[in-house]
Amino acid sequence: MNSILPVLDSVRSALSVGFFAAGVVLTLVCAADWMVRTRRLDPFGRVARFFRQSVEPLMAPVERRIVRAGGLPTSAPWWSLAAVVFGGIAFLSLFDFVRGQLVGIAYASQTGSRGMLRLFISWTFAVLRIALLVRVVSSWVRVSPYSPWVRWAFVLSEPILRPLRQIVPTLGMVDITPIVAYLLLGLLERFLVGVA
Asked: Which of 13, 119, 126, 192 is the most buried (most CB within 10 A)?
């Protein structure tokens, strides 16, 4: 496992540099495409023709979604850039998460059964915290609690939130029990890992 970590670190560094370089290039391309679309550049010049032939077909799916949502087609380059930036951040975060889990597994396997128990406790509480976050975000975007995408989060978090709702008052229209539950889960996890 110790031989894999330097390889993963070098891959992570290469991915970071690659995503940053792609972001810079895409920023320049999106700025030029936006200038062509808003006629800040000559719409009949070479640059405009190049972008209409090469770049705009790539932006067409984004543009269609924006127009369907009631937006302006001229904002398609910026939405494309935002999608690539957030996608890169999400990919790097997922890579870091997998690397962290591999390090945790290696450490737990070296420390024996106590290490594996601590790892299991950590994973259990991580799933519960993710369920709380999914539940909160799904309430913001108004996803049905019966949707198969979020039902698991409601099933896992409701036994935690139901008793807290009887104790913790709401602040106006805001239910703060998920925040309290998140903090309590962190404290309980620390306690159980310390005892194990």
From this structure: 119
CA 110 to chain CA centroid, nearest Å: 31
Give the angle 186-150-174 at the CA atoms, nearest 5°.
60
Positive or negative torsion for Cα 40, 41, 43, 49: negative
Helices (H) and strands (E) in the chain, counts: 7, 0
Predicted TM-score of the model (pTM) = 0.67
Distance CA 134, CA 160 (A): 14
**pLDDT of 1 above 70:** no
CA 159, 180, 99: angle at the middle one, nearest 5? 85
SS3 174: strand
Helix (H, G, I), strand (E, B) or coil at 166: helix
Strand partners, 174: 171
Neighbours of 118 (CB within 10 A): 20
